[in-house]
Amino acid sequence: MAFASFKRVRLVTASSILALGALMGGHAARAEDAPEKDDAQASEASQEGVIVVTARRREESLSRVPVAVSVLTAEALSSRSINSESDLQTATPGLIVRSTQGSSQFNYAIRGQSIDAFSVSQPGVLTYINEFQTNALSAGSLYDLGSVQVLKGPQGTLFGRNTTGGAVLFSTARPEFDDLAGMVRGRAGNLGAWQLEGMINAPVGEGVALRLAGMVDQRKGFVKNLVNGKQLNNVDRWSTRGSLRFKLGDAIESTFVGEYGESKGNGDPLLLFSANAPGSLGPNGQALPATLTTFYSPILDSIAGAGAYAALQAAYPGSPDGGYGAFVDVQRALGTRATYLDADTGLAARSWYVLNTTTADISDDAQIKNIIGYSNNRNVSLFDQDGSPLPFYGYVQTLNRIKSFSEELQLSGKALDSRLSYIVGVYYSKESRRSGQDFRYFDLGPVANPVVAPMFGAPSLPLANHLEGDFDVSSIGAFVQTSFQLTDKLSATTGVRITKETNAFTEISGFAPFYPAGIKERRSDTKPSWTLGLEYQATRSLFLYATYRGSWRGGGFNYNAPPVSASAPDGGNRFDPETIQDVELGAKFLGDIGMVPARLNLAAYKSWVKKIQRVAYITFPDVGPGGATLNADGATFQGIEFDAEVSVAPGVKIGGAFNYADPKYTGNRQQTLFGTFLEFSTFADVTKYSGSGYFDVVTPLPGNAGDLRMRFDVYAQSSLYFSNYGESGAPGTKLPAYELVNARIGVDNIGGSGLSAAFFAKNIFDKEYYVGGIGLGTAGGYNLAVPGEPRTYGVDLTFRF
């Protein structure tokens, strides 16, 4: 561990100890008896199926919180075999887990808010672990969790300025003071897959408990590279987590959590999905880029002389006679389980974090909470960035290293005879990110290289570049949110956060002649986020709400454009903050329909976004292909989200969810970026329709043999674009609709022994589909897609004690 990182860990620990001392010194005596629940809480507590969420930074029932929330409890995570981020998407319609350059690099998208590959924007959907915002959540972190909550829509008041689309809250299972307990789970299945997961919870003294957990996940790849015989898309990762929880008296509680994980493997393939033909035109008559289909084809002979393409083809097995454009048809015929790639692929990633949460009850109705943490993430990947056996990109390596620290202090409680609930807080964070790329490209073979190189002002081919920059983003803010009970049934919520964000950028190594090393730039933005809402408990079972919210995400700098204080369309490298306003109307029902217990949630929303941040992939003059974040004029997003669950009989539940989204660009949709014409025409990561359904049965077997559990799930989504220029500069970026069917059948607690056994299967019908992609049609004239997982199945054995 580097010395600087060790100092930050010591800071987390020391600050937590100081916070404990301050909280103990200012502690007021806590009443022996907890406050009584109001009538609404008491009546709901008597109903079956109450789910507790923390969407407003306090524990509330899901059916009474005025936010669209999808929740996966610890039991749901286990019973549905949710082990990866792609599983989260199929379990939570409306959440898109987007893979851009492979399954190891993913982004969350909610209600159209996301980021593209190579973007320097902050994510529109942030991840939190125990209320600590971190990018160090590894691909193997989904074990021993208490719950996963997906909050939809802007959450900028309580969760920071960048949560314009929503937040994904991961809660680790906390240590328990009562008994020694443990769990061991083993899974084995096809593709040589095996997983081992374990947990032990141990009281280690009066008011002190320790919880240790870990997992190992292995699986062979499912996409065969026919050039070298390697099976790509393998899984090779492990992670371990420790949690220490202790109480000081009756009023103060503190929990430390630390996690470390590693992932490696032979890489994820990017499959060629479409390409522009030479001479093709866009809808406005503009010439579309077609670099690869022109130079990597028999047309090369007319440029470099007879036999040039044949010589190139002979050096790279799998290259089709018709060239790069013909390989589109070859890949389509191969499907998603095989390809031809000439460049190396690979992955090496590690991440870790340490955090502390300390709470102190300073009175019967007031509590102080301190959340402090540090995280560190490093990801190095190798890609074949052209998705073919031809050597346009012979080598691409990306490096992303993110270090982040944050400190948050809250005061929350109730006042005015418990009619007023409030939370007040201050927040500071600092994120240091280094992003870099090494790549070699445009190798046309021994015959063509010396002929073509002078055309590009280069001494020789292939070309090469190293691009690297440091981003230091600090944020300081203060927030307050209140909920006041106007009547027994009607409440009003108001909240505001003021945040100042400072973004400092240093170029380490850049595209000559644009960026000599060492140039530094800096900007600061200060903006508010807010929430205004009304909540109405119409009946014991029916809850209605209306919310108006606003949030934003900060501006920044592109590290492959000229260091000019102007936007990218004006020849510079800056982009401005994006702002969003949102209206949401919702209804939640938890009660009986006739004699049938049911839970129903409905939300309708509309969002207005100004200066929406988007990435443009272009070929920079005298530089080469790259991406730049820019601001479009604006956009609107509107949609409906619905989910339901009914208990048709004891132990028998039927449920499902449905999402509809309708986005539109507003204002001027056309821009010219360094000579490349662009038109925003589609929305990446937005599917118009998505939905799921499930059938869940739990019934005791005779003779105390155990509990039989059967679960069947289906998930479906309509087509999805992976480019914002899908009907203009990047045609052929529309992924087809697909549906997946999963099942799990097993027996829990066999004979009262603590042993459970189950058989599971995912993608039962072995559907071939894509989970994302990168649209480079506006740069080299081609587009790549990431394949989804095939049918997987296996057995799961769990022993609890």
TrEMBL record:
Domain spans labelled TonB-dependent receptor-like beta-barrel: 316-763
Signal peptide: 1-31
InterPro entries recorded: Beta-barrel_TonB (IPR000531), Beta-barrel_TonB_sf (IPR036942), Plug_dom (IPR012910), TonB-dep_rcpt-like (IPR039426)
Gene3D superfamilies found in the cross-reference section: TonB-dependent receptor, beta-barrel domain
Keyword field: Cell outer membrane, Ion transport, Iron, Iron transport, Membrane, Receptor, Signal, TonB box, Transmembrane, Transmembrane beta strand, Transport
Subcellular location: Cell outer membrane
Gene Ontology CC: cell outer membrane
PROSITE patterns: TONB_DEPENDENT_REC_3
Taxonomic superkingdom: Bacteria
Protein's membrane topology: Multi-pass membrane protein
GO biological process: one example: iron ion transport
The TonB-dependent receptor plug domain, residue ranges: 62-167
Matching PANTHER family: FERRICHROME IRON RECEPTOR-RELATED (PTHR32552), TONB-DEPENDENT OUTER MEMBRANE RECEPTOR (PTHR32552:SF81)
Family membership noted in the UniProt record: Belongs to the TonB-dependent receptor family.
Full protein name: Iron complex outermembrane receptor protein
Organism: Novosphingobium kunmingense
Taxonomic lineage: Bacteria, Pseudomonadati, Pseudomonadota, Alphaproteobacteria, Sphingomonadales
